[in-house]
Amino acid sequence: MTTRVALVGATGKLGGIVSGVVAETEGFELVAELTSASDLSEMDAADLVIDTSTPAVSIDVVRHAVERGQQLLVGTSGWSAERIALVRPLVQAAGTGAVFIPNFSLGSVLATALAAASAPFFPSIEIVEAHRETKVDSPSGTAVRTAELIAASRSQVGPVESPHVDQRARGQQVASVPIHSLRRPGVIARQETILSGPGESLSIVHDTIEPARAYAPGIRLALHAARDARGVVIGLDNFLDIGIRVPGAPPADPGVDEGGVPGQVARTTGA
Q1: Is 131 a catalytic residue?
Q2: Which pLDDT belongs to residue 255?
Q3: Which of 25, 29, 55, 157 allows an S-S link to 78, with CB 3.0 to 4.6 Å?
Q4: Is residue 13 flagged as an active site residue?
């Protein structure tokens, strides 16, 4: 049975990648491609709505799809846990599924899981993320998700130590974790989580090098998951058995072997 797909934000960078993946994935048919300025009624014939629009438009896309009983896959940045909590009751009442993916990169998921698993052992944690200058929101959805998982993993030891947070240059705090956002040409996507303790530090870095190759395996995995999901699901890690125990996080569902993580580099360094 073919799943009819409507893609909102089809003219954007991520939208273009998603469009190509949908076109080559068996069992899915792209029946509508919308821009952020399109009338949302154009997506009404779809079984699954994929949103890669902008933070300002995304909330209307989600509400429109939920009201019509459509399945949702949201790749738009800016969806914090607090914002998702506002639509969770709507999704549950509709009996449908909404999958929110802060980052389709499998390497990024691993880097975030490593940071969260390490977080209880270090009193000081900060995140530095960089994206191209055209990214309209900050901090990134990946950085917000990382900070939220770090906070969850530290539920037994308390918030991170963040001195001088009253100073604007100290970054924006998310779940007690300072996040510093860089927006500049010459970079695609990069995140470094720096964990510091007495006499040592641990840096977990993920770089996206080729977005189309880096995101495609995660998009395929999310497509199949979103088609049958029920309720709200946050993060690609829910569909991957990555073998990393994150304190305070629910166990991940069994995943799919995508055969490698091309197009990206992840590294962990200690100093």
Answers
A1: yes
A2: 36
A3: 55
A4: no
